[in-house]
Write a structure and sequence with these properties.
It contains 10 helices and 4 strands. It is an alpha/beta fold. The protein has one domain. The chain has a 4-stranded mixed sheet with strand order 1-2-4-3, sandwiched between helices. A hairpin with a 3-residue loop joins strand 3 and strand 4. Helix 1 runs antiparallel to helix 2 and helix 8 runs parallel beside helix 10. The two termini are about 25 Å apart.
C-alpha cells in the first residue's frame, strides 16, 4: 500500500511499500521434497520442518545425491527469492518468441534455480499438487478480516525502522517455530508462525533494522 501524500491520522508512512511473498513455489518444492522423501540434509541454518508435513513417499532415486544437493539448492533458491527485477524484464519477455533461446534464458533468470532443473520431475509426485492445493485453501480461509488485523499493521512500530533500514520484501515459509534470516540488503525470510505473532514478528523485523 502507498499514497502520494501523507494521510492525516494514518501511522503507515505514505511512501512505504512492503511486499509479502507467502507462496514461493521454489521454496515450497524444496521443503516438500525434503519431508516427503525423508531427506536428512546437513548444513548450517537450514529451515525447520513443515507445520503440515506431507505423507511419506518411497525411497528416493538416489538418496545420497539428493541429500548432498539439497542445502546448496536451498541456498541458491533463497538468494534468488530476494532478487528484485526491473519491470522492463517482463516487457522484454513479451517480445521474445515461444520456444526461443532468448525466452528460455529470461524465464530462467526470472524463476531462478529449482530442484527440477537439476534432478527433473521425479521427486514431485501428484501428492505435491494436492498438498499445494490444500495450502491454497488454508491460506484463503486464514486471511485477515480487516486491514488492522494484517501482521504488518499489528507490528507497524517495528516494521517502519526495518523499512527505513532497507527492507522491501518479507518472505514466509510454512515451517515450525522460529527461522529468521536476512537475505541480501532488502529481504527478510521468516516462518508463517512468526509473522502471525505480533511480538515474534516485531523481534524478527528488529533483527533487520539492527543489521
Amino acid at each position: 500500500m502507498r499514497s502520494t501524500t501523507p494521510m492525516e491520522g494514518n501511522p503507515w508512512p505514505h511512501d512505504m511499500v512492503i511486499s509479502v511473498d507467502d507462496d514461493s513455489y521454489q521454496l515450497l518444492e524444496l521443503l516438500w521434497i525434503r519431508e516427503t522423501w525423508g531427506l536428512r540434509p546437513a548444513g548450517d541454518d537450514l529451515p525447520p520442518l513443515l507445520v503440515e508435513p506431507p505423507a511419506r513417499a518411497g525411497e528416493p532415486d538416489d538418496r545420497d545425491a539428493w541429500e548432498a544437493a539439497w542445502p546448496g539448492v536451498w541456498e541458491d533458491v533463497v538468494s534468488h527469492a530476494a532478487v528484485r527485477f526491473e519491470p522492463s524484464m517482463f516487457e522484454e519477455l513479451t517480445r521474445t518468441a515461444d520456444g526461443s533461446k532468448e525466452r528460455a534464458e529470461l524465464l530462467r533468470r526470472l524463476h531462478g534455480p529449482t530442484w527440477r532443473e537439476r534432478f527433473g520431475d521425479a521427486a514431485l509426485t501428484e501428492d505435491y499438487r494436492a498438498w499445494t492445493q490444500a495450502r491454497f485453501h488454508a491460506r484463503r480461509d486464514d486471511r485477515p478480516r480487516s486491514l488492522a488485523e494484517s501482521p504488518e499493521r499489528r507490528s507497524l512500530d517495528a516494521l517502519i525502522p526495518a523499512w527505513r533500514a532497507g527492507l522491501s520484501t518479507v518472505i514466509t515459509i510454512p515451517c515450525r517455530g522460529e527461522h529468521t534470516r536476512i537475505i541480501g540488503g532488502s529481504a527478510l525470510l521468516t516462518t508463517e508462525e512468526t509473522r502471525k505473532d505480533p511480538d515474534r514478528y516485531a523481534a524478527a523485523l528488529e533483527t533487520f533494522a539492527r543489521r
